[in-house]
From TrEMBL:
Lineage: Bacteria, Bacillati, Bacillota, Bacilli, Lactobacillales
Keyword Ribosomal protein among UniProt keywords: yes
Gene Ontology CC annotations of this record: ribosome
Keywords: Ribonucleoprotein, Ribosomal protein
Domain of life: Bacteria
Protein name: Large ribosomal subunit protein bL33
Family matches, as Pfam families: Ribosomal_L33
The family this protein is said to belong to: Belongs to the bacterial ribosomal protein bL33 family.
InterPro entries: Ribosomal_bL33, Ribosomal_bL33_sf, Ribosomal_zn-bd
Keyword Magnesium (UniProt): no
SUPFAM superfamilies (alphabetical): Zn-binding ribosomal proteins
Amino acid sequence: MPLRKVALACVNCGSRNYTVSENKNRTERLEVKKFCKHCGKHTLHKETR
């Protein structure tokens, strides 16, 4: 079974800048601070499905 990818979207501008492998054991959506090239600063990114 191939690994599925999910996107991480910036909470400020909504841009989907990063992708991560889907984890079936994770019950809550992943939230990480990442650099957003559109906002020009580190912002919170949330997992989209």
